[in-house]
Design goal:
Layout: E1 4-10, H1 14-25, E2 29-36, H2 43-57, E3 63-65, H3 79-82, E4 100-103, H4 104-114, E5 120-123, H5 128-136, H6 140-143, E6 146-150, H7 166-170, H8 172-182, E7 190-192, H9 194-197, E8 201-202, H10 204-217, H11 220-238, E9 245-246, H12 249-258, E10 263-267, E11 269-271, E12 282-284, E13 296-300, H13 304-322
Parallel strand pairs: 1-2, 1-5, 2-3, 3-4, 5-6, 6-7, 7-13
Antiparallel strand pairs: 8-9, 10-13, 11-12
Helix pairs in contact: 1-2, 1-11, 1-12, 1-13, 4-5, 5-8, 10-11, 10-13
Bound molecules: beta-D-ribofuranose (BDR) and calcium ion.
Beta-D-ribofuranose binds next to α1 and α7.
């Protein structure tokens, strides 16, 4: 029986696609809405990817197209990381589902108002839509049950600039507005930064286990994930990490659903907007020098092997259950 209603704002995206497949496969998750925001590739492509994946995964929820561009800076895209379509080497069929006509920001607001205190929200891409939604409904932090974010680099190098992480670097002003708006919210947002997500390393063994899913589930999304992951491995190898992939979004997603696989610690975090070398850096005040109350819970102490086992087991069981066409 579905019991955890989730609103997901993301930019699929290879690891976003894995996260969505996990959510669709998880027996206790209800996907209440999806919002695709330009990030890994442009907004039209991520929206298309979301529509196709949702159809293949049997997701019945509104799927809105997010903002065309970040609040202030020019858009940037990561097709070197995620492939020209956003899903690596995978070839997706044409979309059948129609998108929701509302803007991404409006869908945030409508869903949160319709179910006050119930929705667990997950941001796996840039924060543009959520920042715009806060302009429509400043009470959002009190209307949501919790907010979970994949973003930032706390005590860790960046993966975009030397000190900045992708989801924050694409729209630093939006991320900063979100952190300010959620300061003092009944539940602090949970921030899964690179410090946590890069503890998860997919190796050839993990890839083999995804390949096995193709055989055992016969689900078309399993093949899509394998083809997507091969591209992710190739990118990481070309970037000097060897034959592996950092797979960020699914860890934050699984923690949002289960509360498991990592601990959290409170921290005051802000986003650098003005730095000439460090724009987009998430700065954490570990020693309390600012004298501010912590405004986020940072994911820490990741149990990566357990998480990967849980992810694969959930996909194994759930893809069989939700499979529609083979
Ligand atoms: C984040 O950036 C994107 O490329 C990934 O999908 C993930 O959300 C990691 O920095
Ligand atoms: Ca993402």
């Amino acid at each position: 029986m579905a019991s955890i209603p989730l609103l997901v704002d993301f930019d699929p995206g290879i690891d976003d696609a894995i996260a969505l497949s996990y959510l669709a496969a998880h027996p206790e998750v209800e996907i209440a809405g999806l919002i695709a925001t330009g990030g890994n590739v442009e907004v039209g492509l991520v929206h298309r990817n979301a529509l196709v994946l949702a159809e293949l995964l049997g997701i019945d929820a509104p799927i809105a197209r997010g903002a065309e561009r970040p609040l202030v800076q020019e858009p940037m895209y990561a097709d070197d990381t995620h492939g020209p379509s956003g899903i690596g080497h995978a070839k997706l069929p044409e979309p059948i589902l129609a998108g929701d006509p509302r803007s991404g920001a409006q869908l945030w607001v409508d869903l949160a108002r319709a179910r006050p205190g119930e929705l667990v929200a997950l941001v796996l891409g840039p924060h543009t839509n959520l920042a715009l939604a806060l302009e429509i409904e400043p009470e959002l932090p009190r209307l949501l049950k919790r907010l979970h974010i994949m973003g930032g680099a706390i005590n860790h190098r960046g993966n975009t600039g030397p000190t900045s992480e992708w989801n924050i670097a694409v729209d630093p002003e939006a991320a900063q507005r979100v952190l300010v708006a959620f300061t003092g919210a009944p539940q602090r947002p949970v921030l899964g930064s690179l410090e946590a997500t890069e503890a998860v390393r997919f190796t050839q063994d993990t890839l083999d286990r995804f390949v096995a899913l193709v055989e055992t589930t016969g689900h078309p999304v399993a093949q899509i994930l394998v083809d997507a992951l091969r591209f992710y491995f190739e990118f990481h190898e070309a970037d000097g990490f060897g034959w592996m992939a950092h797979v960020h979004d699914p860890l934050v997603t699984a923690h949002a659903v289960t509360g498991d696989f990592a601990a959290t610690r409170p921290l005051a975090v802000d986003v650098e907007l003005a730095g000439t070398l460090t724009r987009g850096q998430t700065v954490g005040d570990e020693l309390g020098r600012w004298g501010r109350e912590p405004n986020v819970e940072v994911l820490t102490d990741v149990r990566a092997a357990e998480f990967i086992g849980h992810l694969l087991e959930t996909l194994q069981n759930g893809l069989v259950r939700t499979g529609r066409r083979g």
